[in-house]
Design goal:
Low-confidence stretches of chain A: none
Order of helices and strands of chain A: EEEEEHHEHEHEHEHEHEHEHHEHEE
Mean pLDDT of chain A: 95
Number of helices of chain A: 11
CATH topology of the largest domain in chain A: TIM Barrel
Radius of gyration of chain A: 21 Å
CATH class of the largest domain in chain A: Alpha Beta
Oligomer: homodimer
Largest sheet of chain A: 8 strands, parallel
Largest interface: A-B, 38 and 38 residues
Helix content of chain A: 25-40%
Shape of chain A: globular
Strand order of the largest sheet of chain A: 5-6-7-8-9-10-11-12
CATH superfamily of the largest domain in chain A: Metal-dependent hydrolases
C-alpha cells in the first residue's frame, strides 16, 4: 500500500457525541484528543477542520454480489418470474447474452461503494460451468487495482448449484487456490437437493484450503432449520467456530419461538454469525434484536445491487442500516444502534478486519458526514463529506 | 391564488419515455408538443430547458401526520415502549411537556414536502380533550398561508380515542364546522372497544357534515376484517361509495387467502380505497399487487414523519414509493409502476384532486429530476431539480 501523508482531522464528533481532534500517521489513528484541549498541528501535516461533523468508522458491506451488478448500465427492464430458479436462470442467460463484464461492473460498483463510505466488502462471486472463473478473475483484478481504497474479500460462490452441476467444485477449488478467501454454499436442500452432500463438500473445501465458510440460506422454516443444524454440526466437528456465517437465514424467523431459541443456542455454541440485510418483502426474517441480545454476532450487506434479480439495492451502508431498521420496525435509539453496528463493527468482526474502529492504533478507515446525530445520519443519509482509507482521502464532497 | 407567469418547459421526458415541450398558461398545462417538432417560445414567456430530465406529476402524500412531526428539532431520543397505547400516551405527554407547536412543525414539514416534489397532502390532525383544537388550528393556519404551494386536506382525527374519551366528538365536530375536509376514525375495537358505536358515530358525522371518511385500521387478521365489514356496511347504507378510505388495513394480509378475496369484493362493491405505505416491520400488510390487479383503488403516504412514534419516515414520496416496492418485494417494472402510481395518480383520485396529471388542462403541478428512467428515480432519489405548483416554481435546485 502506498503510504498516505500524515493528516489531522479537527473538530469531528464521535458516535458518543464527544468532539475530538484525530491525528493520523502512517495510515493509522495515532492520537485522539478532546477538541476543548488546545493543541497545535505539526508543521508539514495537512489539517482538515470538520467543524463538528459526524465521524464514523468506515462501513463494512459483509455481503455483496458486485460481479453481476448492472449499475451504470442502461435501465434493465425486469420481467423475471417469481421463483428462485427463475431468477438464477434468467441471470445466467442474460449475463452471457449481454456480455456483462465482471471487472468493469465490479469496478463501477466498488467506486460507488467507496463514495458512500464503504471501506471493506465481502463479495460473493458466481462460479459455474458456463462462465467458469471469468467473474472471479474480473473481481480479483478489480481487487488488486483498488487495494489502497477498498478492502475486498472474495467468496467462491456456486450460485447455479454445486453438486447439481458437475464440474463446479473443481472450479471453486481453482478459485480457492487462486486467492478466494472464503468458500460459499447455497441452499443445500432446495438447490443441490442434498443437504448432507452439499455441506460435507463445502466444509471439506474449507478444511483443505483453510478458509472461512459463508452459506446463503433462503430455505424457510423447518427446512432451513435443518440446514442450520447441519452447519452447526460440521462447524463443531471441524473446530471452525468463529469462521462460519449463515447469510439470510430466513428460517430463524420462520419457526416457532422455542425452536428459534434452540437454533440460537446452536449459533452461540459454535460462534456462527448471521448476515441479515433487512430483506425486501414480508417473508419471515431473522429476529435481529433478539439475536443481538442473545449475543449472536451479526453483520449486513447490500446483497445484489441493481442486478437482474431486482433493482432496489444500492451500494450505501447507511441506506442498508436504515432498511434493517425499517424491516425490523426499529424505533428506539438502542434499536437503531444495532442496525448501525451490523454495518460497521459487526461486519468488521465477521470479515476479520484487524483493529477496526475509532481507537488509537486503528487503521484510519473513516467516514465524515454532515449532521447533528449519528442515528439521524442513517435516516437523512447525507453525501459523504470525506472518506479515508488507510489515511488516504478516497472521497471528498468538501 | 396569485397568478403564476406563463412558462415553457422544453425537453422534458414523460413517464412513457417521450421527450416533449410543455406550455403552461394561467397555472395549467396548455400544450404538449413532441420535442422533435420545431416550435418557438412566445415572447415574454420564460423558457426552461430541462435537457431531457424526467417529468413527474406532483406527488401526492395521501396519509401524513404533519402536526406532530419533530423534524427540524434536536434529535428525539426514543425510549418508547412497544405497544400502541405506549406510543399514543408517550406522544400526548411529550407534546404538552415540550410545547410542540402545530403551526411551526407543520410549516416546517410542508416546506420539506414541497422541496421533495409533493404538491398535495392529506394530513391527519390529532384532536383530543387535552390539546383540543390547537393542533387543528395550527395546521389550518399553515394551510392557508401555503395554499399557493401545497394543497392541504385536513382530517379531524381522534388519535387518543373518541368514545373512550368523552368530549372528543364535540371537538371533532367543531373542526368539521371550521373547515376539516374529512372525518377520521381509529381502530374501532382496540381503541374505543366498541366497533359499532365508533363507526356509527364516524359515519353519522360524515353524513351531517358531508365529508369523506378515512379510518386508521391497525387491527390484525379477523379483528380488523370485522371492522372492514362494518365499514363496508355503513358505506353502502349511506351511499358513501368512493368517499371512504381504510388506512393501513393490515388485516387484508393477515387472514387466509379466500377471506382476503371476500374483503376485496366488499372493497370493490363499495369503492373503498386502501392506503398502504409499505409499513415498517414484518407484520402482515395489504397485498398491494393483488389489490391493484383486482381493481381496488390504492394510495400511500409518509404517515408519521420523525415523531415520537418513530424516526424513520421522511417527507419524500419517491422514498415512499421505494419503501412500498421494498416491503412488497417488487422487482419487475410493472410492479414498480404500481408503487409510483400509489404516490401520484392513486392518491390524487382518493383526495379528489381535479384534472390531476400530465395532460392538457391539468394544473401545472410538476416535478422534474435528473435521471435516465422514471423507475430508476425512485431508487436513486435525486434532488428535485424543479417543482411547480399551479405553474409557480416552488422548489429549484437548478
Amino acid at each position: 500500500m502506498t503510504s498516505a501523508p500524515n493528516l489531522r482531522l479537527i473538530n469531528v464528533r464521535q458516535p458518543n457525541g464527544d468532539m475530538v481532534h484525530l491525528s493520523i500517521e502512517n495510515g493509522l489513528i495515532s492520537a485522539i484528543t478532546p477538541a476543548a484541549q488546545a493543541s497545535s498541528t505539526p508543521t508539514h501535516t495537512q489539517s482538515i477542520d470538520a467543524a463538528g461533523r459526524l465521524l464514523f468508522p468506515g462501513f463494512v458491506d459483509a455481503h455483496a454480489h458486485i460481479d453481476k451488478s448492472l449499475l451504470g448500465l442502461p435501465w434493465y427492464h425486469n420481467e423475471v418470474g417469481p421463483s428462485l430458479t427463475d431468477k438464477i436462470d434468467n441471470e445466467r442467460r442474460y449475463r452471457v447474452e449481454q456480455g456483462i463484464d465482471s471487472y468493469t461492473q465490479s469496478s463501477h460498483v466498488a467506486r460507488r461503494m467507496i463514495n458512500a463510505g464503504t471501506t471493506h466488502v465481502r463479495t460473493f462471486v458466481d462460479i459455474d460451468t458456463e462462465i467458469g472463473l471469468s467473474g472471479f478473475d474480473g473481481v480479483m483484478r478489480m481487487r488488486d487495482e483498488m487495494r489502497d481504497e477498498l478492502t475486498v474479500q472474495v467468496v467462491a460462490f456456486p450460485q447455479s448449484g454445486m453438486l447439481a452441476r458437475p464440474g463446479t467444485v473443481a472450479l471453486m477449488e481453482a478459485a480457492l487456490r487462486n486467492g478466494a478467501h472464503v468458500v460459499g454454499g447455497l441452499d443445500p436442500s432446495t438447490i443441490d437437493r442434498d443437504p448432507k452432500g452439499h455441506l460435507d463438500t463445502i466444509f471439506d473445501m474449507a478444511a483443505r484450503y483453510n478458509v472461512d465458510v459463508d452459506v446463503h440460506l433462503h430455505e424457510p422454516a423447518e427446512l432451513g432449520a435443518l440446514s442450520v443444524e447441519l452447519i452447526a454440526e460440521r462447524t463443531a466437528a471441524l473446530g471452525w467456530q468463529g469462521r462460519v456465517v449463515i447469510s439470510h437465514a430466513f428460517c430463524l424467523g420462520g419457526v416457532d419461538d422455542s425452536y428459534t431459541g434452540k437454533l440460537i443456542e446452536l449459533l452461540l455454541k459454535n460462534d456462527i454469525a448471521i448476515m441479515s440485510h433487512g430483506p425486501s418483502g414480508s417473508r419471515a426474517a431473522p429476529p435481529v434484536k433478539r439475536l443481538h441480545q442473545a449475543g449472536v454476532r451479526l453483520c449486513a450487506g447490500n446483497d445484489g445491487i441493481r442486478d437482474t434479480w431486482g433493482p432496489l439495492n444500492m451500494p450505501d451502508m447507511l441506506l442498508r442500516a436504515f432498511l434493517i431498521a425499517y424491516r425490523n420496525n426499529f424505533r428506539r435509539d438502542d434499536e437503531l444502534e444495532i442496525a448501525l453496528h451490523m454495518c460497521s463493527y459487526g461486519g468488521a468482526h465477521v470479515i476479520g478486519a484487524q483493529n477496526y474502529g475509532l481507537a488509537v492504533g486503528s487503521p484510519a478507515d473513516l467516514v465524515i458526514v454532515n449532521g447533528q446525530n449519528h442515528l439521524e445520519a442513517m435516516i437523512e443519509r447525507p453525501p459523504r463529506w470525506l472518506v479515508l482509507k488507510g489515511g488516504k482521502i478516497v472521497q471528498s464532497a468538501k
